[in-house]
Design a protein that fits this description.
Blueprint: H1 7-12, H2 15-24, H3 27-37, H4 39-44, E1 47-52, E2 55-60, H5 75-94, E3 100-111, E4 119-123, H6 126-139, E5 143-152, E6 158-170
Antiparallel strand pairs: 1-2, 2-4, 3-6, 4-5, 5-6
Helix pairs in contact: 5-6
Length: 171
C-alpha cells in the first residue's frame, strides 16, 4: 500500500491541504477519524492508499465484517469505499477555503465481477474536482459533479464501478 504525493503537486497545494494529506497518511489519525465520524469505514477496515490532487485510492478488505452471506463484499461496503475515494478529493480541494457544503445527491452502481478479495477503489477525477470547487466558490452558485470510482480486484480486474454525484455549495 503506497502512499505518495508528488513533490511538485504538494508544493502547489494550500498549506491546509498539505496538513490534510499528512493526517490521511497517519494510520492512527485516520483510524480515530473513522471511528468518530465514519464508524462503518472503521468497522469494514477501509484504509486510505495513495492520494494526491489528481487521484485518491482506498482499500476495502474482504473479511468477515465486509462480506455478505454470498461470500462477496457487501454492496454497501463497496459504496462506502467508493464514496470515500471521491470525498477525499473534495475535502482536499476545500481545505483552507471558505465554508462550503458537500453532499451526495445521486449514486449509480455497476457490478461486473464477484468481489471475493480485497478491492482497491480509485477516483482519478481530481482535476475535475478542483475546477468544480473553484467554480462554486467564484460564482457562489451550487455546482454538481459526478465522479467515477472504480473497484479493482488484486489482479487489476474491475469488480465494480460507482458514479457518485456530489453537490458543492458555498455557505
Amino acid at each position: 500500500m503506497e502512499r505518495a504525493t508528488s513533490p511538485a503537486m504538494s508544493r502547489s497545494l494550500h498549506p491546509a491541504s498539505r496538513r490534510y494529506l499528512k493526517n490521511l497518511r497517519s494510520p492512527w489519525k485516520i483510524g480515530l477519524f473513522f471511528l468518530g465520524r465514519l464508524p462503518t469505514a472503521w468497522w469494514w477496515g477501509i484504509r486510505v492508499g495513495q492520494i494526491d490532487p489528481q487521484r485518491a485510492e482506498v482499500f476495502l478488505p474482504y473479511n468477515w465484517r465486509s462480506k455478505n452471506p454470498f461470500r462477496s463484499i457487501y454492496f454497501a461496503a463497496q459504496a462506502g469505499a467508493a464514496e470515500l475515494s471521491t470525498g477525499i478529493l473534495l475535502q482536499l480541494a476545500l481545505q483552507g477555503r471558505p465554508p462550503t457544503s458537500m453532499l451526495v445527491i445521486d449514486l449509480k452502481m455497476e457490478f461486473l465481477k464477484k468481489a471475493s478479495a480485497t478491492l482497491t477503489f480509485s477516483c482519478e477525477d481530481g482535476a475535475k474536482v478542483f475546477e468544480t470547487v473553484e467554480t462554486a466558490l467564484d460564482t457562489g452558485e451550487p455546482q454538481t459533479l459526478t465522479l467515477l470510482s472504480t473497484g479493482r480486484l488484486p489482479d487489476g480486474e474491475v469488480a465494480s464501478r460507482m458514479w457518485i454525484t456530489w453537490s458543492v455549495k458555498k455557505r
